[in-house]
Amino acid sequence: EAIRLFRTCLGLELKGEEEAALLILIGNCFLGLSELEEAEGHYREAETAAKEGEDKEGLAAALGNIGLVYRKKGELDKALDYHQQALEIDKEIGYREGEAADLGNIGLIYQTRGELDRALDYHQQALKIYREIGGREGEATALGNIGLVYLTRGELDKALHYLQQALDTHRKIGRREGEANALGNIGLVCLTRGELDRALDYHQQALKTHREIGGREGEADQLGNIGLIYWARGELDKALDYHQQALKIDREIGYREGEAADLGNIGLVCLTRGELDRALDYHQQALKIYREIGGREGEAAALENIGSLYAHKGDPDKALEYLQQALEIFEEIGAKLEIETTKRTIRDIMKSKEAAGG
Description:
Strand content: under 5%
Order of helices and strands: HHHHHHHHHHHHHHHHHH
Mean pLDDT: 94
Shape: elongated
Largest sheet: none
Number of helices: 18
C-alpha cells in the first residue's frame, strides 16, 4: 500500500530532492520485503535524481541504501565503498543523523568480517551521535549492534545489557521490526547460556512479529534460531523442518549469509543423526558461501564443524587441520567462547591420537 501511494506521488510535479526522497522511500519498502533488485533499482533512480537536483543529502541516502543492498547480497567490499561515500557526503554537509547511520552500516560490515574491535568503534561513534541529536530509533539500533558484538565475543552479561536497552527503546517508540530483532537477539544470549525454554519463547515472539510485519529476512533468522533450539533438545525432525523453511526463504530473497547459516545448521542435524557424508556436504557448501562473502565468523564456524566431522570419521589429522584454521580466525576476531571450545576439541583429539600411538 505504501509503494502504491508513493508511486502516485511520483506522478505529481516534483523538485529533484522530492523525487529522490520518494524513490528512496519506495526502495526502502522493497528492501523491507527483501526484493533486492527492485530496491536497488529505485535507489539508483534516486541517486540520479539527487545528482540532477544537486541534493547532497538525498545522494548520500541513496548511496548508503545501495550499500545496504550489497551487504544483503554478501558483496561486502562494494557495500563498504558505498557506505564510505555516503559518510563522506554526510560529514561534508553536516547531516549528523545520516553520518550516524553510515557509521553504523560500516560497523555492520566489519562485524560480518569478524573485525569486532573496528565494528565496536563504529557502533559506539554512531550511538554517541544518536544520543546527542535525540535519535531514539538510531540509538536503539546502535545499542542492538553493540550487544551483538559482545555476544560474538562471548561477553554475555554485557550483550544482554545492551540488547535489553535496545528492546526497551524500540518498544517505547513503537518500532516493531526493531523490537522483533532485539527479542531474537536476546533469545540468542539465552540459547548460548543453555536456557532453552527462555530462548524458545523469545524466538517465537520475534517470529510472530516478523511474520505480522512481512519481514522475510527476520522470519528466516528466527526459524533458524528455533531450529537450533530443537536441535539442542534432540528433536531432530523438528529442527530440520525449521532449518529447511529458513533456507527456502533465504534463497528466495537472495540473503547469502542467511543461506550459509541455514546450510551449516542442516549439517549439524545430519551430523547428530550420524549422516556424516551429508553433513560434510552441507558444511562445505556453507564454507564456500562464507568465503565468497567475506563472513569470517561464519567461515570459522564452518571450518570447526568440518573439523569435528573428520574427527567423527576417524581422521584426526584432517580434523586438526580444519580446527586449527578455525581457531586462528576465532582468535583474530576475539570470539572467546569459540576459542575455548575449539582449543578443548583440539586437545581431546590430540590426546586420542597419542593414546592410539598416532
